[in-house]
Amino acid sequence: MSNLAHSSHPARPAIAWIGLGIMGSPMSENLVKAGYDVTGFTLEQDKLDRLAAAGGTAAGSIAEAVRDADVIITMVPASPQVEAIAYGPEGILDNARSGALLIDMSSITPQTSVDLAKAAKDKGIRVLDAPVSGGEAGAIEAVLSIMVGGEQADFDEAEPIFEALGKTIVLCGPHGSGQTVKAANQLIVAVNIQACAEAVVFLEKSGVDLKAALDVLNGGLAGSTVLTRKKDNFLQRDFTPGFRIDLHHKDMGIVTDAARNVGAALPVGAVVAQLVASLRAQGDGGLDHSALLRAVERLSGAEV
């Protein structure tokens, strides 16, 4: 039996949330604020305590979290983690009830999403891939872009949930399409950050007032959401992770691999993928992706 009968909002689906990291914690809390019953599971006890403090319910296992859920949302780092939580006797597919809707908001390979949807169908579970863009700030402010792959009817059912999490919500096509669009998003973001980082080093070495320069650049054609969001990171050399280099490294692997499979050339993307990989090899994988600035500084002779 579903918990719906016990909910203070009987019309709202009961939600299980798996994965309470930098993105998952604020996103799940936004659903609690929107009046949903959210039962969460993650590996770190302090994250479970945080959800409980925000008004959600902490579960002791994936099986316990998903058992009575109408909707299950997953937000974990990469394809191997999605497979680990979805499959096997302790996983989502073996423990969720038939008819549940599984929304995977992780950024993974399109093929993993396609395979998951196929495996879930055999269990009577519907799936949407719904990766997001907007980083930690977008998650906290509930202004994420959500790119979705799957069936129209399932998307329509999930839309009120998405509206509590983000602002731009688009069904991009069948299973895997959300992940393909997310891969393109990560390509654009990485190249944009790299261009901004190169401009910052060039401006500073030229002796220009960096804050003034970035303000005027951001008001013209060179302006971007990336520059708006990352300007302070550049100015203060604050690389506290909103989105870690390690994860962008994973995403650049996804987009270069997917592009190769469809025969699309990504010459600039390939170079930036190598710069991200090199930054990670230098020990900066745990920093925010705006730390691409550090790589440009090193190449320009600075001791970083």
UniProtKB/TrEMBL annotation:
Keyword NAD carried by entry: yes
Among the GO biological process terms of this entry, one is: glyoxylate metabolic process
- Locate the 3-hydroxyisobutyrate dehydrogenase-like NAD-binding domain: which residues? 176-295
- Keywords, A to Z? NAD, Oxidoreductase
Mind listing the GO molecular function terms for this protein? 2-hydroxy-3-oxopropionate reductase activity; NAD binding; NADP binding
E.C. number: 1.1.1.60
Lineage, top-rank taxon, reads Bacteria
Q: Gene3D superfamilies from the xrefs?
A: N-(1-d-carboxylethyl)-l-norvaline Dehydrogenase, domain 2 (1.10.1040.10), NAD(P)-binding Rossmann-like Domain (3.40.50.720)
Per the database record, which ranges form the 6-phosphogluconate dehydrogenase NADP-binding domain?
15-173
Q: Which Pfam families match?
A: NAD_binding_11, NAD_binding_2
Q: According to its UniProt record, which residues of this chain constitute the active site?
A: K182
Cross-referenced InterPro entries: 6-PGluconate_DH-like_C_sf, 6PGD_dom2, 6PGDH_NADP-bd, HIBADH-like_NADP-bd, HIBADH-related, NAD(P)-bd_dom_sf, Tartro_sem_red
Concerning its family, UniProt says: Belongs to the HIBADH-related family.
| Protein name per its UniProtKB record | 2-hydroxy-3-oxopropionate reductase
